[in-house]
Every structure is written in C-alpha cells, then in structure tokens.
Amino acid sequence: MFFGQKKTKMIYSCQHQSIIEGNRMNRKSDRILSLQIAGLQGFYWMIFCPISAYASVYPLSKAFSNQSIGWIIAISSILAIIFQPALGVFHDRFTKINIKTTLWILSVFCLAMLAGMIFFDPKMLMLAILYVGIMALLVTMQPLVNALTFQYINAGRDINFGVTRSAGSLCFAALSIFLGIWVDRYSTDILPIVSFILFAAYALLLFTFPKVDQPGKLEKSPVIPENSLSSAPEKGFLTRYYRFIPFLLGVALIFLFHNVINTYLAQIIRSLQGKDTDLGIALTIAAVLELPAFLGFSWLVARINSGKLLKFSGVFYVIRSIVFLMAASVWMVNLGQALQALSFAIFIPASVYFINEMMKEEDRVKGQTFITGSITLGGFFGSVIGGRLLDQSGIFALLLFGGIAALLGALLLFYSIPAQKKHPTDHPIP
Length: 430
Hints:
single chain; Growth Hormone, Chain: A; globular; mainly alpha
C-alpha cells in the first residue's frame, strides 16, 4: 500500500515537473519569437526611413522637380492599393505559399531594384520607375508584416503586438538621426546603399522564423493598415450613413495636409537654412513622441470616447498647420513635428474605434475601407498638388494650401461626428 502511494506520488511529481519544463520551454520559445518579430518590425521601419521618409531628398539630388517627386509618391501609393488586395486573393487561392515566403520574394525584388540604382546609374525615367516600384512594394509589405505577427498570435503564441510594433518606431527614430548626419557628410547616394543592406538583413531574418501551425492566409488584424483597400462598397451604404460622406471628405483633407508635410519636410527645413541633419532630428522627434500615444491609446479611449478624440486630433492638426505656416526657424518645425503625437498618433487608432462603435457589425469593414481610401486619396492629391505649388509658388503657398485643407477637414469632422455615449453600443451615424 505504502509503496503504491509512493509510486503514484513519484509519477505525479514527474508529470508535474514535465508540465513545468514544457511551460518554461514555451515561454522561452515565445520570447525568442517576440524578439524575432520585433527585429522584423525594426528592420522594416528602418528600411522605410531612407526610402519613404527621405523620398524627396534622394530624387532632388538627381535633378527631379518637386512635382515629379509628388507624382512618384502618388503613383507608388496607388500601386500599393492595387497590390495589397491582389496578394490577399493570391494567398486565398494558393494556401501553400505562406506570408513569410511572400515577404521574402518581395524583398528579393526590392533588392534587385536597389542594386540597379546603386550599380548601374540609371537615367531619370528608369530611376523614377525603380523608385516607384521599391516604394510600392515596401508599402505593400506593411500589412503582411502585421498579418504574419497575428498568424502566430492566432496560433496561440504569446506575442505582444504593441511592444513589437514599438520596436519598429524606435528603430526608425534612431536611424533618422544617423541618416541625416551621413547624408550631410557624404551624399544622398548613401540612401540606396543603406536600404540595400537593411533589406538583405530583413530577408535573412525571415529565414529564422518558425513554421505557423495553420495555413498561410492573411489574417485579419484588429487594426486596419494605413495604406490598404479591400472590398468594393455595397450599394446604399453611404445613404444609410449620410454624415459619413462629409466625414470622409474631412479625413481626406486632413491627410492632404499630413502628406504635404511628410513629403516635403526636407524642402521646408532647407527653406529655413536647415540641413539634412535637421531633417533627421525632425523625423526622430515625431517618431519618438508619437509612441506614448500609440501605446497608451487603450487607456485613453476607455476614458474619452473615440468621437471626441477624433475632434481633438483634428484641432491639433489645425494647430500643427499654423505652427508650420509661422515657422521662422528649424526649431519651430520641430515643434510642429512634436504635435504629431496629438494629431496623427491619436487620429489613426481613434478612427478604427469610431467605426467599430458607430456602425453596425456588418458595415464595419466597409467603413474602415472607406476611411483608408480617403487617407490614400488625401495623400495622393497632397503629393501631386503640393509638388506643383512648391515649384510654381514656393514654401509659403504650399503650407497655406495645407493649412486651409486641415482647417476645412477639422470643421467637417466636427460637423459629421455625432455625440457619443461613454460606452456606445452599435448604432449608425445619424
């Protein structure tokens, strides 16, 4: 009897120890995977820095006009809108090709185009085509990187998306400073070289990721990517939410201003006798200061409803436009960049919550799609019109145009956003 009890206890103890060891191994494995995902986000946003954040700096050094730069950025955005849903359909049909493989293939294409820019000194037309291709594929990767993360989360892995995404912002901020110094010290030719090295490291890191215990479909993330369009609008949708139309127009106008600043920030700084080092500092300020808003938004929206937060961000977009318009020094520009934490960083998550709260469940995806489309259209016209204004009338006209757009956009937000309860249920925009 005694021997049997002792044996049972020993078996139980071994099983218990085995469970503890298994849990410990799982936690260790999840920590390693979290570091891998954080690294992937870090490399992605570091690549984004020389290619997108310095998008006007490199072409300017190659004798492109501001209007041409605007068209390069606008066309790449439109192509990304086409590529993203196309890849979604592709993954639905060919489930054996997983997201990791797709990201690697896209990286190889980008590496080939960057190699062409570095080693073959292409003429202006070919350089424009290569730049458009690289930017379009880079933007296309953004939702795929997020989707890969959510595949692991949906498979039961303990991954904190907010923390891993923050690693991307921190890496972007750090590289921004160094790029500004390097461009000042050497030349803009260093930008594609840095991009090539980072893309190579990014592609190699993808090989280290473990297999996902589920098919490689694009998973729906809780946050809609900033540059994607998916489903076609249902007839009658906009008539059911009639205030949604001026709301979308307001979003487009606000992001017209937002894109004017993002695209032509280098030109704004240079007009104030600033250098590329100052551009790096300005980008870093925006990236670092928007982090607390992103990380603390869940806490914020639990206390202030999403509609009020959208209005709040609209007000600060207007204030930001005034700061830029009145800027007499680089430090005034830095102040305008700091206000991104109270405008862009609030607007993006608040818009997702707003649609979720104010629309019926079956209409929410369409609502998010329309907002994304408005952001993209605003960016398109901001790039194209802004470039033409800059070439023909100068910085002041550009900033005045952006400021008027931000003001009209904020007014439309105030008109179209109804009063909300603190904890709203499903109800349409009246």
